[in-house]
Design a protein that fits this description.
Blueprint (H helix, E strand, L loop, with lengths): L25 H16 L4 E3 L9 E4 L6 E12 L2 E7 L2 E10 L2 E7 L5 E7 L1 H12 L15
Bound molecules: zinc ion.
The site of zinc ion has 5 residues, from helix 2.
Length: 149
């Protein structure tokens, strides 16, 4: 278990497309453990592997309801919309409104290699979209709405 360095928004690694995980290896388990440590240490609600410089489709989320680890997550369904301020550990100290679906259903693999379905509304839906975007090199600032004065 270790805390890794969080890459900041000008780092090119955040703009790359991540590769699918083909195999659960001891390295991948270490990555999952380290990502959770890093997220909690930074008081974040989510972290994607490219934020620690690893170009793999791996995400951790904890919106205060327990740790969720997602390997190769794919969004299956979305509905509704919500607009709220969003931040990112890779864009420290900044927040801006982003429109996201209000409901998201996704599938992913857990650390034992089993596929599972996750559904979320509001903050969980937002976290799923935000973190999965990271795996395709997309940052929330790309989608942020103009801030109303
Ligand atoms: Zn982020």
């Amino acid at each position: 278990m270790a805390i890794r360095t969080i890459r900041i928004s000008t780092d090119e690694v955040l703009r790359k497309t991540c590769k699918e995980v083909k195999e659960i290896t001891p390295n991948l388990i270490t990555l999952l453990d380290d990502m959770a440590d890093t997220m909690y240490d930074a008081n974040g609600v989510g972290l994607a592997a490219p934020q620690v410089g690893i170009l793999k489709r791996v995400v951790v989320i904890d919106i205060g309801e327990g740790l969720v680890e997602l390997i190769n997550p794919v969004i299956l369904e979305t509905s509704g919309s919500q607009t709220d301020d969003e931040g990112c550990l890779s864009v420290p100290g900044k927040y801006a409104p982003v429109e996201r679906p209000n409901y998201v259903k996704a599938k992913a693999m857990d650390r034992d290699g089993n596929e599972f379905i996750i559904e979320g509304e509001e903050l969980m839906a937002r976290a799923l979209c935000h973190e999965i975007d990271h795996l395709d090199g997309i940052l929330y600032i790309d989608k942020a709405l103009p801030v109303e004065e």
